[in-house]
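Work Package 3 (structural annotation) set out to generate three-dimensional models for the target panel prioritized at the project kickoff. During this period the team completed the workflow that converts sequence records into discrete structure tokens, so that structures can be stored uniformly alongside our sequence database. As a representative example, we reproduce one entry of 341 residues exactly as it appears in the project archive.
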Amino acid sequence: MLGRAFLAAAALAGAIFTAGAAQAQQTLDAIRARGQLVCGINTGIAGFALPDSRGVWQGLDVDLCRGLAVAILNDASKVRFVPLPSSSRFTALGSGEVDVLFRTSTQTMLRDTTLGLRHVVTYFYDGHGFMARKSMGVAKVSELRDATICLIQGTTNEQVTADYFRTINTPFKPLVFQRTDQAMEALQAGRCDAFGTDASQLAGARATLPDPKEWLIFPERFSKEPYGAYVRRGDDNWLDIVRWYTYALIEAEEQGVTQANVEEMRKTSTNPNTRRLLGVTPELGESVRLDRSWAFNVIKALGNYGEMYNRTMGPDTQVGLPRGPNEIWTKGGLLYALPLR
């Protein structure tokens, strides 16, 4: 059933790709003409995308959108956020409703080959997990026999959950929702015994509960969930911009370029890689039709990747996630910027 649903969604996305193809050819020009980037984000999950008490969106995905607006328009405020449920995020991108998705979206082969879209660069590594009340006294996910499990429609988590319980020959009952907040309400109300989604999103959801200590995120992981931005096929320049923008944030952290020192680094560094990154020499910006100072402007406004991560979901935030695999490669993580030269 899940396979048929995916193929149906893929067919729909493929149909609207033709309509969006013309738009895809001039994405950068369209953004410049309207003076605003339109960015698809999550409907609400702490750490990635969630409005604060003033109604201002905050999170890693939100910062990545703002940074991209800086790279193109040199203004972090020139971005419009479009919260999208999992079930319609790819069709919204394919139809041209948004320019790019930074929306906790796993990169998979079928998504890359059947939706008329392209995933770009992995900027966050995660894995599927489960959360339940500690008072249930369950130590392992395999003990959730006949459990009702909350899931989000249109995510890889639906299939991962079904595959796992089928593998261990254990029945369960899925209860599917459009949004994370709906699933969490059902979980707290006792309509579900557990909630299955990516571990980082479980941590974000738990952080917003009245008493987070009542809830256990099981340590087991059941999948690989690498998040990447998605863009429409057919616009190589736009793909290049989003790809190398993401790498530039990681490269800045690798080089020790921060929001606090970026101006001094541009003035004094003799490292050719740093000089290229910060626009002392113009070739990187010219190669993707951006200003020579595009990466400098982003880092000055929002910091490097590590600064974004720590500000939005790091150990000192309510989400409290250590870097883990999302540390740069020189510190034992998986993040690795391809050479910017």
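Residues 2-24 form the longest helix (23 residues).
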